[in-house]
Amino acid sequence: MRVRKVQLTSFRNHAESSLEFTGGINFITGANAQGKTSILEALSYVCLTKSFLQQADATVPKFGGERFAVDAILETDKNIVNHVRVAFDGAAGKRYFLDSNEVRRSADVIGMFPIVVLSPGDFALTGGSPAERRKFADLVLSQVSRSYLEEVTEYRRALKQRNKILLDGKLSNAFDGDLLSAWTDALIAHGSKVMARREKFVNEFQDAFSASYRSLVDSGEVPGLRYEPSFRVETDIESDFRKAIRELGRAERARGATLAGPHRDDISFTLNGMPLKEFASQGQHKTFLVAMKMAEFGYIRGMLGETPAMLLDDVMTELDYSRATRVIQAVGTLGQAFVTATDMLSFDDKMLDARETKFHFVREGSVVYENA
Amino acid sequence: MIYTSQALETLIGEFSKLPGIGRKTAQRLALHLLKAESEDAERLAAAILDVKRRIRYCSVCLNITEKDPCSICSDAGRDHASICVVEDPSDVIALEKTNEFHGVYHVLGGALSPLEGITPDQLRVRELLNRLRGGVTEVILAMNPDVEGEATTIYLGNLLKPLGIRVTRIARGVPVGGDLEFADEATLVRALEGRIVV
Ligand SMILES: Nc1ncnc2c1ncn2[C@@H]1O[C@H](COP(=O)(O)OP(=O)(O)O)[C@@H](O)[C@H]1O
Ligand SMILES: [Mg+2]
Ligand SMILES: [Zn+2]
């Protein structure tokens, strides 16, 4: 997939910006706070229906207004050209149009235009809380499987509803056992499917991950990934889930919350069998992250048969030079990449020669082309 | 903007209480009516009052109706031993359009949703149980295919099974996250045919 053009209207500090992209590497440069990341954010709206920055839609309209729009022309690997429009209005909310037809559910479009994002926010992936790793698995799986996205959405809903019953029950000290049990069944039905998919994903992902890791470091280090559910799975997920909920009954009522299930999953990283979190250096953490993102790229491409576009925000400053160059080269030879940076000097000539490149210079919410 | 007429302000205020109507739309509607013929305004006012005066809930199935019991409940040609439980009156309309179901309905008035404060007491569950005394042999649960509908189906299934009635639910042919009323007729027919025992 490649993005041919994008137009931002009243989007963050961009009043009206149009960009035409190359199918190779697009360098988006400019000083700090000029509007570079916002361009990647706009691409995220087009491809994932939402911001990768996890910010509310209402924070996006240019200060003083309550609307924004992003229009884009995208081309799939099979050369099918689509026009996407995302329009937000404070009153009507966000609306997504694919070739002028409104798409009502994000699941209908997520995965059509896959992207992989590496931004400063991702540095919490290896060392941060388990929530970061669940988010990673969810985002990758949502793009490759529509049914996963639906399943995880329904699980979250069932979880919220069940937690409300537990919390209300705790506060009033009265539980409707029949009501709780109906929601427990719904929770387990969806939660078991989510867990089975995540477990399978981690196993499948392992190979792609080890390969990318070895392409980054020449030492004999053996990296590993392991799926860590919130309860022991001995027989099958569904009956062990039920058993865990039964055993936690009293604790759940005391806490007023659901204490087992995929919302408490983790994925652990190991290096030579040792937990990464406790032993790894900063540099090893970064290598892990880059290897994860490269593997994500390959995994999505393999599953969908559609090449993701790579969005790399500030990687030249966040990663060290050689790691940054490697990612850009690796993905840039396979597909389209968008790379933000504060100066052009940091780009290596070899990197620029490797593929078709284009520079987009951003200043105060406008895009300037030198030769235009 | 504050208008100089209290009457206009009141009308705008009333409009903006309606679902999906913000203040701006309310202003547009009010100003439109201001320009309209008096007869048009009167017809609208009368229609609103009519709905409130004439429409009531059927005392048997709790669907909306003008006469009580409703035309479905008072139809002797229908199978009164088979009750299809739905969330809303609009679901009855959707199922009726298929011409496939010849039993009667029971409108629950929503689905279980603790987050919105909807517990079994808020739904017409007790009314359903009362109806089951009179020779009912099958209950079909036709909730919306979302998590709330699913939990409601499980809840009612657990409640009804011990009563020795055949309890089925419609198959999940309806797209996930969709509403029953938005499902096309062919899909609904398949869902009815493929119903499974709870
Ligand atoms: N809704 C908004 N309206 C106007 N400006 C905004 C809005 N949201 C953020 N900004 C500002 O836009 C500028 C550009 O942000 P960003 O795209 O992150 O810049 P860069 O990546 O170039 O450093 C920042 O100064 C930010 O404060
Ligand atoms: Mg930035
Ligand atoms: Zn009736």
Describe the structure.
- The complex is a heterodimer of chains A (372) and B (198).
- Chain A has 372 residues and is α/β, with parallel strands linked by helices.
- Chain A has two domains: 1-114 and 307-372, P-loop containing nucleotide triphosphate hydrolases (Rossmann fold), CATH 3.40.50.300; 123-305, RecF/RecN/SMC, N-terminal domain (Glutathione S-transferase Yfyf (Class Pi), Chain A, domain 2, Up-down Bundle).
- Helices cover 45% and strands 23% of the residues of chain A.
- Chain A has helices at 36-48, 124-127, 130-144, 146-172, 177-216, 237-247, 249-255, 276-279, 282-304, 315-318, 321-334, 349-354, and strands at 2-11, 14-20, 25-29, 67-75, 81-89, 93-98, 101-103, 115-118, 223-228, 266-271, 274-275, 309-312, 337-341, 357-363, 366-368.
- In chain A, strands 2-1-4-5-6-7 form a six-stranded antiparallel beta sheet, with helices on one face. Chain A has a six-stranded mixed beta sheet with strand order 8-12-13-3-14-15, with helices on both faces.
- In chain A, helix 4 crosses helix 7 and helix 5 packs across helix 6 (237-247).
- The longest helix of chain A has 40 residues, at 177-216.
- Chain A is globular and about 70 Å long.
- The mean pLDDT of chain A is 92.
- In chain B, the strands form two sheets. Chain B has a five-stranded mixed beta sheet.
- In chain B, helix 6 (147-160) links the parallel strand 5 (138-141) and strand 6 (166-169).
- Helices cover 40% and strands 14% of the residues of chain B.
- Chain B starts with 5 loop residues before the first helix and ends with a strand.
- Chain B has a domain at 79-172: Dna Topoisomerase Vi A Subunit, Chain: A, domain 2.
- Chain B has helices spanning 6-15, 23-35, 38-54, 89-98, 125-131, 147-160, 185-193, and strands at 56-57, 64-65, 79-86, 103-107, 138-141, 166-169, 196-197.
- Chain B has 198 residues and is an alpha/beta fold.
- In chain B, helix 1 (6-15) packs across helix 2 (23-35) and helix 4 (89-98) packs across helix 7 (185-193).
- Chain B contains seven helices and seven strands; from the N terminus they run H-H-H-E-E-E-H-E-H-E-H-E-H-E.
- Classes of the chains: A alpha/beta (372), B alpha/beta (198).
- Chain A binds chain B through residues 91, 105, 107, 150, 153-154, 157-158, 160-162, 164-165, 168, 176, 178-179, 181-183, 185-186, 189-190, and chain B through 22, 24, 112-115, 119-120, 146-148, 150-152, 154-155, 158-159, 176-177.
- Magnesium ion is lined by residues 36-37, 313-314, 340 of chain A.
